[in-house]
Amino acid sequence: MAKKDAPPRWDRRMQQRLARGEAAALGECYDRFASLVHGLAHRVLGDEEAADGITREVFVHVWENPESYDPKQGPLRSWVAMLTHRLAVQRLRATETAALAQGGQGTPEDLERRVRQASIAARADFIVTSMPVPLRAALEQAYFQRRDYRQTAADLDIEEEEARRRLRLGLQLLSTAHETGPSGVPPEPEEAW
Fold it and tell me: Which residues form the RNA polymerase sigma-70 region domain (predicted)?
């Protein structure tokens, strides 16, 4: 978004349609974001059933509280991801705290460390899936194929300098996965996405 006061048209229309109670809008929103929501929830919780539950909770919240999304604050995708992250972390904390209370292994510090690690991993997944395809393709070549920038340039049929630029930018975006806000929650995604 070039300006904070000019949200993408689709996001604005979707929020309006949800506010009017259009069931078809919820279906479109689900089709667009369900895999993102489920993937992030699964990454935080490490449990398929729990991720299914979070996915349901997220879309119930979207349906019942469409006014809580403000298109001027950023993309709907980012808001849905943030909501997913928050609910998944709450569920992880509740589950792990209950396990500790029942004599489970670990300490509250271990719990916070697990929550932080799960949050970073989920944010990194979101960053990778949200970054532009050329950046993601370069990172995939470098990481999964173990290619250097010269090999990546040849594989993608681009200049070596462009391969280096893409890798550098992709890694810079990924490095933000470790950043947290004042509450320990990762910050909202930046405009670069």
Answer: 30-94
pLDDT tens digits, 130-162: 788 898 899 988 888 899 999 999 999 999 999
Q: How far apart are CA 125 and CA 92, in angstroms?
A: 18
What is the C-alpha separation between 42 and 51, in angstroms, rounded?
Answer: 5
Residue 18 · residue 63 · CB < 8 Å: yes
Angle between helices 23-45 and 9-19 (to 10 degrees): 110
Report whether 115 contacts 45 (CB < 8 A): no
- Look up the pTM and report it: 0.68
- Chain CA centroid to CA 17, Å: 23
Which among 136, 124, 112, 119 has a CA at the least distance from the CA of 177? 124
* DSSP code per residue over 136-172: HHHHHHHHHS---HHHHHHHHT--HHHHHHHHHHHHH
Pair of tokens at residue 152: 């990546």
As a whole number of angstroms, the distance between CA 188 and CA 79 comes to 8
